[in-house]
Description:
Number of helices: 0
Number of strands: 11
Largest sheet: 7 strands, mixed
Helix content: under 10%
Amino acid sequence: HVQLVESGGGLVQAGGSLRLSCGASGRTLSSYIVAWWRQDPGKERDFVASIRYQAYDTSYADSLQGRFTISRDNVKGTVYLQMSNLKPEDTAVYYCAARLPTDGEYHYWGQGIQVTVSS
């Protein structure tokens, strides 16, 4: 079982930056595809970005590419989401999720972390 822990959220002004981190307790994330999702209250959870073990293999939601960058440190077993030029509409709870390459869906989820962007 993989327990994911997010950190780095908080309150930031529009135009600012935040870096979220995702780590796993008990094991490394190096074998897993890791993704970030986000959810506004009352709305569906939306895909943000994902990254495979080969750190160059990334995928982004079309609307976020260019402002958000996903990366990973396979030695530390940590995945990051660098968010720049943040907008109020980026306000959401951000979730880290992981799956093995052979799995069709994300089985492991963190508790989520709040990101609030003030105008």
